[in-house]
Amino acid sequence: MNFEQLKPQVETIVLNTGKTVKERLLSLCELLEKHVNHYNWVGFYFRNGIKEELVLGPYVGEPTDHTVIPFGKGICGQVAISNQNFVVPDVSAQDNYIACSITVKAEIVVPIFVDGKNIGQIDIDSNTPDPFTDADERFLEFVCAKVTKIL
Ligand code: SME
Asked: Taking the complete model, does pTM exceed 0.70, yes or no?
């Protein structure tokens, strides 16, 4: 399924007030992991109150030990500070990287803003080398903009 086909499904999930926010976020992870071939681990991290750390939220994929990530650490921790998308075509070329699984070759992290504040992010790992394009960034920005409305 391509990104344009996925967008209405993202909207349907987000607008389903019959489910809790957590359930909807998990459904989004399931949708993306199932229908985008190069998405192999899909999850959300959120800022832990006023603490400078991220806490793992709903996700789909292998369980990770990294349920709390300090700001500045790894790709996720860097995005918490930079407020910018981070596309990593080759994780082995990154010094500041937290490995979750040896199968992961690439990663993309896109921040989520509420009232202009960076409150979390969507994090995607891929087992395919260098799989992400501008289209992934635009699509994930779309997903994050929808998620913002229910946080
Ligand atoms: N690789 C991430 C850690 C989170 S896992 O991918 C689930 C990072 O470097 O921040």
From this structure: yes
